[in-house]
Write a structure and sequence with these properties.
Structural class: alpha/beta
Strand content: 15-25%
Helix content: 40-55%
Oligomer: single chain
Radius of gyration: 17 Å
Amino acid sequence: RATNAANKKNFNGKLNLLFVGRLEQAKGLDDLLSLIEKMDRTDKINSLTIIGESKTLPKYEKWAERLPVKVIFSGLLSRKDVFRHYARSHILVLVSKSEGFPKVIMEAGAFGCVSIVSDLPQIRNVIKHGHNGFILHSDIGFIDHQNFQTILNDRDKLDFCSKNINSAAKDFTFEKYISAIENAVLRQAH
C-alpha cells in the first residue's frame, strides 16, 4: 500500500508539508514555523499538517494564524490515520534539536514522503542530502530559510529523493527489525 502511494506521488503541484511529533520547541516545531514565516514565497506550499499534541497548543495555533500557509492541527491520530497523511503529503519536516533515529522518517519514506531533517549524526547515517532526503544545517542555532526554499523549488530532486527514500524504507520494515533481533538472540545463544 505504501509503495503504491509512493509511485503515485507527484511533485509538480503545490506541496503538502507534514510534521509528526510532540509539538514543542525541542522537536523543532518553532523552527519549522519560523522557517515558513521567513520564506520569501510560499505559493508552492498547499498546506502544513501538524500531527501531535502539546501543552502549549494555543501558542502554536496563534502563530499559525499569522503564517501565509494553511496550517492544520490534527492532534493525536491512530497509525492508520497517520499513514493516510503520509500518503497525501510530499514533505516531512523534522528539525529536532536532538534525536535518536526517528522511525517517522522511514514510515513517511515508505509512502514516498521526502524528509527535510536537522543535521544529527543518527539521521545523517541514513539520510543522504540530495539523494533520499535533505539535511538542513544550522549556523548558530538558525536554520537557513533560503536553503529550505531552494529545496522546495527543486521538484526534480524531490521526485528523485522520493523514489530513493521509498526504496531505502524497505530495509527498515518491522519484519526486518524482528528478524535482526531474532538473529542477534540466536547468535548469543550459540
